[in-house]
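seq:
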Amino acid sequence: MKATKILRNDQEMIDRFLAAFGLGATYAAQNKPVKPGFFIYAINFIKGYIQGSYFKKEEALLKSLEENGLEADHGPLAMMFNEIKQSHELSDEIINAARAWQAGDMNGRTDVVWATSSYTSMLRQHLDRSRSMIFPLADQLISPDDEYKIAEAFNHIVFERDEIQLPDHYEKIIKALEDDADEWK
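struct:
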């Protein structure tokens, strides 16, 4: 199915981001010279790529599964929708804590570490669940007509934003985060 292939490609980039982002939290917990700007910069990837694009595409797939008989108020769909909500909440916690840290509140550093660790753990589980449960369900339940509707929704998502960022923009964010994390080893 083309929709799951697109989402898998997005997930590869998210996996790279999570590796660098998680290292930043680990190094911050070890009192290495991590700066709050690392986390503030990382939020651009979360808000723009994960929440602004990936989750919207994933929601189109999840809604199609719901239309094809899966219940959204419990089970795997409910878990997926809940984790999308958690992503928004945790990313807000991360940015608020990073700004507090940047303003001199050292509790912000601890809060950033906790929220980032929670975020990366939750999102890794979310991606694993989509790979192991949601994608196989999509392959079984979604008809070619529904697949066409999902593809249209994906195209709409890509072009709906006023400030379309090319994948290169997000690749550069990941590369900068990876470079920073490599310096702290």
